[in-house]
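User: Can you recover a sequence for this backbone? Please restate the input before giving your answer.

Assistant: Of course. Working from this structure:
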């Protein structure tokens, strides 16, 4: 076995000394005492000696040089197809890790844990949503009714859009959400007054598949005396939340943010008819197909069926 010394060029001193050590050890074993005595002499394990010798026998002098270890793909690495789908859901719909996990399972038959989704988002630098989420006030308390229709939260969302000519248009989205099931009813109206609110109450009485016991609103001018007594005359109760406490109607408030993030920011407004048609399609998707984190990933109508059954 003839070993050719190689002049190290541009090598790190530590790596070069290790390389020289391998050459000296193998040369000593060849010329003098053999493997066992050589290992004793240089105080190295026999397994290390035979590893060096094997590399020299198979690769020659190049096998003794330091080689940077390359990472091998993890057998459980998330496929690129799933990673791309996660990034697409975040970019297009601004969903959080929990909702992305639900969407993947429901619509793409892909089971990906919330923690995995978060790690992928963090790796791509988008673990935080673009809009900050305000914390609940310290005096608020979460609650969930268990009977459909027992508590309906009603509120109005101001919708600012532009028509086909670029002119600013304001419409009012009246929203009602059932506390127990999260079933919602939506309607766009041109006015923001008690007449419009009363019209909406008639709409949800016909729309909801259960009897309404209580309507809960803030103290806006559209929900004042005439509206109040109209609701009471219909055989329902009307209660106001405390002043300056929108978190007490938190479910309808949160649903409005969902409307903005998942519906209005993707909307191309043309005219009122088109707007109402698209809103109806969004309402149907929300009630029948969209998984809801507040009800364990079910849709509102799945929750309703589970209660009724």
């Amino acid at each position: 076995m003839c070993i050719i010394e190689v002049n190290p060029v541009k090598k790190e001193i530590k790596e070069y000394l290790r390389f020289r050590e391998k050459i000296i050890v193998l040369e000593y074993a060849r010329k003098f005492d053999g493997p066992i005595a050589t290992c004793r002499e240089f105080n190295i394990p026999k397994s290390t000696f035979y590893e060096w010798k094997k590399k020299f026998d198979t690769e020659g002098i190049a096998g003794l040089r330091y080689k940077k270890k390359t990472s091998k793909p993890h057998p459980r690495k998330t496929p690129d197809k799933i990673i791309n789908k996660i990034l697409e859901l975040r970019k297009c719909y601004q969903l959080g890790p929990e909702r992305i996990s639900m969407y993947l399972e429901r619509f793409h038959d892909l089971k990906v844990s919330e923690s995995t989704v978060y790690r992928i988002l963090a790796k791509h630098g988008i673990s935080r949503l673009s809009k900050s989420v305000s914390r609940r006030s310290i005096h608020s308390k979460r609650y969930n009714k268990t009977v459909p229709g027992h508590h309906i939260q009603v509120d109005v969302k101001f919708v600012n859009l532009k028509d086909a000519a670029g002119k600013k248009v304001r419409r009012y989205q009246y929203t009602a959400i059932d506390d127990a099931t999260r079933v919602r009813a939506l309607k766009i109206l041109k006015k923001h007054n008690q007449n419009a609110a009363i019209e909406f109450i008639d709409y949800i009485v016909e729309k909801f598949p259960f009897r309404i016991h209580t309507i809960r609103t803030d103290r806006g001018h559209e929900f004042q005396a005439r509206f109040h007594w109209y609701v009471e005359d219909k055989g329902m109760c009307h209660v106001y939340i405390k002043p300056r406490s929108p978190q007490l109607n938190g479910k309808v408030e949160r649903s409005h943010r969902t409307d903005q993030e998942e519906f209005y920011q993707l909307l191309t407004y043309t005219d009122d008819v088109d707007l109402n048609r698209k809103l109806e399609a969004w309402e149907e998707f929300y009630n029948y197909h969209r998984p809801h984190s507040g009800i364990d990933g079910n849709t509102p109508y799945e929750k309703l069926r589970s209660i009724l059954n």
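That completes the design. Residues 132-140 have pLDDT under 50 and may be disordered.
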